[in-house]
């Protein structure tokens, strides 16, 4: 049974249909990134899953429970991180985290969470005096402290510096390896491609694409450029890799251009060839379709927004 199951979800606000027959599932321990432009229906979908809104049609289930009818049973098993606000401006991180922990039967150590998220030095600082990044990290700590089975994260790294972003995803990675399921909404497409097991793109309330980052970005024209010392023989490399290889740059540069995406299989074969030739890799970079290119092409192309457009990889 899927941990999160959305079947034919419809939600309307007056004459506006915010979610229009959405189908979606998320498995245990999976991180799903829900992407889409503003007004695409992402927030409404998540709010239905959290029990804040009641569907007009279709069903949603989290851990097999109805988020509205079974709210009392479900609430202790989910963690919710809002992008902004939700906390009294005079509250202090330590007292807030300890208070929330007291509502759970087996919470994480609040002080350990504060330390892990770099909040120990501001544990007694009022919420309104925290920086935006510190407020974000406190919101994450509050979502995590109850050891939830499912996490709903709204722009979890918005406003964080690169070090804090890495720390956040290392912490969340530990949770998913332990079986926690994450539904993530974000506008950071590079981050979604890096951390999500699957990506769902919604637009105008409907699912437009669904698949792993590799599946969604496959099919573009890819190239890998390598430079080695000593220089490799292009013909022998092409024979080993099974793809076209041509010199790149001036003679003697040692640079070769490989007509392929930088797939794990290609890189494994390239490493084996380098070892056989006794060559040292000095440069490697690849190019191909990015998730951002796929996303922009989808949401900007009127042809992709037809009512009968099928989801890719669904």
Please trace the helix and strand order, writing H or E for each element. EEEHEHEHHHEHEHEEHEHEEHEH
The termini sit apart by 17 Å
Helix content: 25-40%
Q: Please tell me how large the radius of gyration is.
A: 23 Å
Low-pLDDT regions: 306-314
Number of strands: 13
Q: Kindly estimate the percentage of residues that lie in beta strands according to DSSP.
A: 25-35%
CATH domain topology of the largest domain:
Rossmann fold
How many helices?
11
What's the architecture of the largest domain in CATH terms? 3-Layer(aba) Sandwich
Could you explain how this protein is built, in words?
This protein is α/β, with parallel strands linked by helices. The protein has 2 domains: 4-216, 3-Layer(aba) Sandwich (Rossmann fold), CATH 3.40.50.300; 221-287, Alpha-Beta Plaits, CATH 3.30.70. The protein has 11 helices and 13 strands. It has helices at residues 42-50, 71-74, 93-101, 110-116, 132-144, 162-177, 189-195, 213-217, 234-241, 264-277, 291-300, and strands at 4-13, 16-26, 31-35, 57-62, 78-81, 150-154, 181-185, 198-203, 206-211, 223-229, 245-247, 255-258, 280-287. The strands form 3 sheets. A 6-stranded mixed sheet has the order 5-6-7-3-8-9, with helices on both faces. A hairpin with a 2-residue loop joins strand 1 and strand 2 (16-26). It starts with a strand and ends in a 14-residue tail after the last helix. The model is unreliable at 306-314 (pLDDT under 50).
Give me a quick take on this structure.
With 314 residues, the protein is of the alpha/beta class. It has helices at residues 42-50, 71-74, 93-101, 110-116, 132-144, 162-177, 189-195, 213-217, 234-241, 264-277, 291-300, and strands at residues 4-13, 16-26, 31-35, 57-62, 78-81, 150-154, 181-185, 198-203, 206-211, 223-229, 245-247, 255-258, 280-287.
